[in-house]
Amino acid sequence: MMHGRDILNNARLNKGTAFNEQERESLGLIGLLPDGVTTPEHQLMRVKRQLQRCTTDLDKYVYLNELAEINERLFYRLLRQEPADLMPIVYTPTVGEACQKFGHILRRPRGLYVGLNRRGHIRRVLENWPEEDVRFIVVTDGERILGLGDQGVCGMGIPIGKLALYAAFGGVPPEYTLPVTLDVGTNNEDFLEDPLYPGLRQRRVTGEEYDSFVDEFVDAVQQVFPRCCIQFEDFTNKTAIPLLDRHRERVCCFNDDIQGTAAVAVAGMMGACRIRGDRLRDHRVLFYGAGSAAIGIADLCCLQMTREGLSIEEARTRCFLMNSKGLVTPETPGLSEHQARYAHANPPMKDLLEVVKAVQPSAIVGVSTVAGAFTPQVIAEMSRINRRPVIFPYSNPTSKSECTAKQAIEHSGGRAIFASGSPFPPLHHGGKLFVPGQGNNVYIYPAVGMAVYATQATRVTDEMFLRAAESLAAQVSDEDLAVGLIYPPVAEIHGTLVQEAIDVATLIFDRGLARAPRPADVGAFVRAMVYEPSYGA
After folding, report:
1. Per-residue pLDDT at 537
2. Do 304 and 403 lie in a common domain?
3. Does a structural domain hold residue 383?
4. Considering its fold, how many domains does the chain have in total?
5. Burial, 75: exposed, middle or buried (Cβ in 10 Å; 0-12, 13-18, 19+)?
6. 82, 105, 122: which is the final residue of a domain?
7. Within a domain: residue 520?
8. Are residue 130 and residue 49 in the same domain, yes or no?
9. Are residues 62 and 125 both part of a single domain?
């Protein structure tokens, strides 16, 4: 059993000034702490005041990360109590800046770094992690961090931030989670010339060398952590879909940028359908961006449309892709197999406004990271052809959003059904309050993660993400919809995600994908496993 400073240096065990007198005596803490015993509530008061003194969001990010390294339970209790204020600090948009400056703000390295120079020995690297039972790994190679491009090993901020939200809001105990960065080099010239860049100083490897390295990592995880689920995060479009296709049927894994983004978008479409009084099968959806996120959303939309009575062929004719070369058609050069199924016969068009006029979509979904792509003219045209146009600029961080909430509401005359990837503040238009919804994947992946953790699922399927989307959409109240909010309030996110986890866990048991025996009451079973960041007795 740990004593003295060893306990204070262990973030998982440390309670700081909240250790009571008896604990201080038995654990050898007398004199190592001020003699006043602080309540958890007063600890929260102290850290909130210290947080308020930070002058920038990046300063707040650094402070919160240091708090997590000192007192883990206090960190998670703070996040769970203040989700609306702190989620943008711990994750997007601030995490984007943190990745860009990672080498300059690095204090104590967190997570596990698996470098290309460890080929042939990745299992030994994983065995260096102090926890023997890891259930969730979020892994990135740093090549496509948010909309910021190649951040190399500095992309570690993404797995760290994702897993913080798993625990804070989804309820996955943090001791079962592991953030990982695969360091395969970087093509970021600024980083290669920066003496403070902490990764390998070489250009990225590609092709067979890259594939074999990632495959070795996936296989090593199965050997060292056999009950672990792998979440692939922020891999570039050219590797994300092939990587998921190669592993999804043989190991427990998913790609949040593909499947999580799809689920939150479909949940948003379900909310829009409630406002419009129609079904998803009635929509024509134009995706501005034709990468892995767009393909994932289109695929899940089509799955839902088939549940509403369309054939898969009919469903695909209602989804359109547009990339930097214009509207995707069968003649578009370099189409992947996944893009080709959404390539419909149309004249070549490169201008988004021209495409909107030709395709006549009811919804436009931005996953392009092209800031301002949804121009006033595009929004006005969407509003001309739709009584309630659906406008979802999902790219993040905020600087990459295809339009702002203010632009969507004003240029649609207050008729747009809006959701975005990054947060925008409430606004008034025409004497009416509008509360923009944030279609952030945090509404999905922590719930799927909690369900997988609780059931010890052997696989993650698209059906699980569709069930999560259905559960999320069902929790939006009529009062929320009245102000344009198509996702539950962020302040209620913990309860929202736990209910989603229960619904997904039920599906996992129904499909025979659980290692854990099915309990009589799935809801009670999941709730009993939810991490509570309290000090206990």
Report:
1. 54
2. yes
3. yes
4. 3
5. buried
6. 82
7. no
8. no
9. no
Kindly tell me if the per-residue pLDDT of 182 is higher than 70: yes
pLDDT category of residue 38 using cuts at 50, 70 and 90? very high
Give yes or no: residues 302 and 269 share one domain: yes
Distance (Å, rounded) from C-alpha 175 to C-alpha 134? 8
Domain CATH for 340: 3.40.50.720
Q: How far apart are CA 364 and CA 353, in angstroms?
A: 11
322 and 353, same domain (yes or no): yes
User: Does residue 465 sit within a domain?
Assistant: no
Closest Cα partner for 283 from 296, 269, 294? Answer: 269
pTM score: 0.94
Residue indicated by tokens 């979020």: 138
Has residue 40 got a pLDDT over 80? yes
Which of 409, 442, 475 terminates a domain? The answer is 442
CA atoms within 13 A on the CB side of 342: 29
Check if the beta carbon of residue 330 is closer than 8 Å to that of residue 323: no
Pick the catalytic residue: 60, 61, 76, 162? 162
Lookup result for tokens 């003194």: 53
Asked if residue 60 has pLDDT above 80, the reply is yes
Q: pLDDT value at position 2?
A: 85
pLDDT for 445 equals: 97
User: And the tokens for 330?
Assistant: 């069968």
Question: What distance in Å separates the CA atoms of residue 362 and residue 389, rounded to the nearest whole number?
Answer: 6
91 in active site: yes
Question: According to the model, what pLDDT value does residue 397 have?
Answer: 80
CB contact set of 153 (below 8 Å; sequence gap of 6+): 102, 113, 142, 181, 183, 186, 197, 198, 199, 200
Domain range spanning residue 60?
5-82
**Catalytic position from the list 61, 76, 91, 453:** 91
Mean pLDDT for the stretch of residues 242-258: 96
Q: State the average pLDDT over residues 423-450.
A: 93
Q: Do 107 and 165 meet the contact criterion of CB atoms below 8 Å apart?
A: no
Per-residue pLDDT band for 92 (boundaries 50, 70, 90) equals confident
How far from 514 is each of 220, 451, 479, 529, 530, CA to CA, in Å? 22, 10, 37, 15, 18
Residue 384 domain-assigned? yes
Both 278 and 229 in one domain: the answer is: no
What mean pLDDT is predicted for residues 278-305?
A: 96
- CATH code of 41's domain: 1.20.1370.30
- Domain with residue 205: its CATH number is 3.40.50.10380
Nearest partner of 451 among 268, 399, 40, 459, judged by Cα:
459
